[in-house]
Amino acid sequence: MSTVKVPDIGEFTEVPVIEVLVAVGDQVKAEDPLITLESEKATMDVPAPGDGTVEEILVAVGDTVSEGTAILRLSGDDGEADGADDGPSESQAEPTPEPESSPKSSTGGSGTGGRLVVLGSGPGGYTAAFRAADLGLEVVLVERYETLGGVCLNVGCIPSKALLHAARILTEADEAEEFGISFGKPEIDLGRLGAWKDEVVDKLTGGLAGLAKRRKIKVVTGTAAFTTPNTIDVDGTSIEFDHCIIAAGSRSIELPGIPDDERIIDSTGALELDGLPDRLLVVGGGIIGLEMACVYDALGSRVSVVELTDELIPGCDRDLVRPLQKRISERYETIMLGTRVAGVEAQKSGVKVSFEGEGAPESERYDKVLMAVGRRANGDLLEAEAAGVEVGSDGVIAVDEQRRSNVAHILAIGDITGGPMLAHKATHEGIVAAEVIAGEDVAYDPRSVPSVAYTDPEIAWTGLTETEAAEQGVKFEKGSFPWQASGRALATGRPEGLTKLLVDAESRRVIGAGVVGVNAGELIAEAALAIEMGANATDIGLTVHPHPTLSETMKFAAEVVEGVATDIYAPKRAPRR
Ligand code: FAD
Ligand code: NAD
What is the mean pLDDT of residues 457-469? Predict the structure, then answer.
């Protein structure tokens, strides 16, 4: 009999036990999780150091433990039971060679069984891996970086939203002066703000590692490249697979001729908060550019934006962009539309940028320049040709409804399959791909994928835009509800918003929706559900919404479409159906 102790858990002490995963009499195998600990930063399992039977459990949920605390007694184990030298099960830093003896199955199209390799651990990859493991597949998850979570968790959605939250507090505090509350000039500790953002990221990525371990997913750290249709190489170690899901994501596009200079950054550099530039130029008026512009403006930089086309957030309806454009035109130094960056020169005193465009200055000098001109799929980095997988010149891997590539047992999901490059699209595809491999009859066929720009104000849309509906010749009716008539928006001091619904003129079903205003991103899900369920505007209008909320504006927009609105004057056009 031997005593299992808490292994090295880094800097943490007195960590609460949140779950005991075994009972007295249970047979466990080496690496089976025994108890789960939750520190401030991560959830982690303590694994069994060897095979054996649980004889006695020495801790309970709610107890706190540190390195060396005895947690249970194990008999008949064939390994060293003292777990003090084993790392916590949340990380596996080195590439792990695969056992030679694992079972193999056919490499045919769909079908179940065999080993699944998931290449990339972003929202697409980890979701696919977790779902596949839950469905009983043997899963190996390969990630080139030490932490799981991909762009979204490490250098995308999550850190950007943490900084946008700070930005919102700064601007709200500043604007409270309007109704008689002054806080004075804020003192910003950039180091602490950056550390807090990193803590948020660490908590999530650590949690993912714990979840992977509990599902017995083998996490291999290293850079993968295909060598045959059934093998990948990970830093010199060959891994065989029966099925593969490629979830290797995308990267920032680099414009040619831009000098290599630390003052010229991409979104990852911008999130590092390495000093606050006095003057910041954002190249690209898309979502990344405008979200980061919002952060730096709130922190105190003088921000300029240059956009090649004539509009910010191309592709989004203009009535939704207008309130954002109006607000940032008043706050930012310049917004140059229809303007091309003709040259960038790194000089001692700053980065000199020259422009070509009507009304644009010939050149200006900035302290930092953020390049945010789009992202490119990573298909060209995987030696996919060795597996026979076709990759487009844009790095995109084309897939069918089941997310299969041209090679039936190799599927692809997320940014690498092209737009929209959004985390929630990747996760949805991940679930479909895992279920397809498990033999389920499913397809990726959402009726709408919402987009949100977490700017101030936020812009959110889903389903068809007005432009798309017009281009496709879809006959629709529109109901717009201006937030000037929303009690909640007025009481929040931000009445510049708008909520609109598009309905099919014949079926009356909701086919599209858009919201601009504070918290628009939280409001759009109702319209996405309506579209997915085939609801019509009357369904939304007849649903009792809580008052006073911004969510009411969705009901009011539905009432405008149906001609039964009472909160604004919109003459009755039709009876309630
Ligand atoms: P990724 O998250 O890119 O993950 C791919 C993973 O594969 C990476 O971890 C990478 O290291 C790994 N990988 C690649 N090649 C290899 C290899 N050869 N070997 C091993 N591993 C490899 N989307 C939203 O929906 N909402 C947002 O608010 C949002 N904000 C964003 C903010 C920023 C600044 C950025 C840059 C993006 C944002 N996105 C947002 C987009 C979102 O991050 C992506 O759509 C999402 O991460 C795509 O997920 P994925 O799983 O396809 O790939
Ligand atoms: P984007 O394609 O959305 O915007 C890039 C912008 O740069 C476009 O407006 C384009 O016209 C402009 N541009 C291109 N070349 C230019 C040039 N030479 N000079 C000036 N402007 C130029 O790309 P992005 O903002 O980099 O974001 C990439 C992807 O990441 C997006 O497609 C989005 O799917 C995803 N993302 C999503 C979120 C979110 O959901 N909140 C946030 C960030 C990123």
Answer: 97
Residue 110, pLDDT > 70, answer no
In the block, residue with structure tokens 């777990």:
83
Q: Check whether 103 has a pLDDT greater than 90.
A: no
Six token digits for residue 121: 């651990």
Neighbour order of strands in the sheet with 33-38: 43-47, 33-38, 15-20, 64-65
Q: Of 4, 32, 2, 39, which is closest to residue 18 (Cα–Cα)?
A: 39
What pTM value is reported for the model? Answer: 0.84
Contact 376 CB / ligand 1 (< 6 Å): no
572 CA → ligand 2 middle, Å: 41
Task: Quote the ligand 2 centre to 253 CA distance (angstroms).
Answer: 9
Do 559 and 536 contact (CB within 8 A), yes or no?
no
Q: Which residue, by CA, sits nearest to atom 16 of ligand 1?
A: 248
What does the pLDDT look like over 323-367, one tens digit per residue?
999 999 999 999 999 999 999 999 999 999 999 999 999 999 999
Does residue 36's CB lie within 6 angstroms of at least one atom of ligand 1? Answer: no
Segment 151-170 shows an average pLDDT of 98
Local confidence band at 81 (pLDDT 50, 70, 90 cut-offs): very low
Strand order in the sheet with 410-412: 218-221, 138-143, 115-119, 243-246, 410-412
| Residue 256 contacts residue 344 (beta carbons within 8 Å) | no
Q: In percent, how much of the chain has pLDDT > 90?
A: 84
Task: Please give the pLDDT value at position 145.
Answer: 97
Tokens, residue 399:
């897939």
Q: Compute, in angstroms, the gap from residue 390 CA to the centroid of ligand 1.
A: 21
Positions marked catalytic:
547
Q: Tell me, what's the pLDDT at 112?
A: 56
- Within 6 Å (CB) of ligand 2, which residues are found? 255, 283-289, 291, 306-309, 314, 340-341, 372-375, 420-422, 451-454
3-state secondary structure 253-293: CCCCCCCCCCCEECHHHHHCCCCCCCEEEEECCCHHHHHHH
Residue 123 in contact with ligand 1 by CB distance below 6 A: yes
Q: Best substitution site from 158, 252, 308, 371 to test ligand 2's pocket, by max atoms within 8 Å of Cβ? A: 308
- Nearest alpha carbon, ligand 2 atom 14: 373
Q: pLDDT at residue 576 above 60?
A: no
Sign of CA dihedral 381, 383, 388, 392: positive
Q: Is the CB of 378 within 6 Å of ligand 1?
A: yes
Q: What is the mean pLDDT of the chain?
A: 92
Nearest to 427 by CA among 440, 405, 446: 446
Q: Which stretch of DSSP H or E encloses residue 101? A: none
Atom of ligand 1 nearest to the CA of 145: 11
